[in-house]
Amino acid sequence: LFLSFGLSWKRGNYERGTFELSYFYILPRGVAPGSLPSTYSMKALHVREVKPQEKIFKPVPGGETHSMVFVPRDVDQSQAAIVGARIGNGYLAYVGDVNGEAESERVISALCGF
After folding, report:
1. If we measure between CA atoms, which residue out of 2, 114, 106 comes closest to residue 54?
2. Of 91, 55, 58, residue with least CA distance to 75
3. Which of 47, 62, 39 minimizes the C-alpha distance to 15?
């Protein structure tokens, strides 16, 4: 799917972790960075092979996975849970949250200009 938009993004790990707003992201025009949460926990299907400026929410430094079943392990810092890129005159965003966290709903609303 991502290739059809000219993006090299690939599916990454599926796990819960804590994510922070990246400082190098490119947001859609008109989206205020202050409308996004600074950090939050989510279970997500991550994306890998993403450029630094395409990462909107990335794992916190030194972050570990959160699981009731598996032993915590370091989160792959090269992946991201929420990414976005300008495509032509538009913008494509991917939100990997699988549980519909309230913060993700806030992110989606902000990215859509609400």
Report:
1. 2
2. 58
3. 47
How does pLDDT run across 40-94, given as a tens digit for each residue?
Answer: 999 999 999 999 999 999 999 988 777 667 777 777 899 999 999 999 999 999 9
> Which residues are within 8 A (CB) of 59 and not within 5 positions of it... i.e. 6 or more apart?
17, 18, 19, 20, 75, 76, 77, 79, 80, 81
**pTM of structure:** 0.91
- What residue has token string 């299907």? 45
Distance between CA 45 and CA 77 in Å, rounded? 14
- Domain extent for 78: 2-111
- Measured CA to CA, the distance from residue 1 to residue 4 in angstroms comes to 5
Q: Which residues pair with 85 in a beta bridge?
A: 92
In the chain, how many domains are there? 1
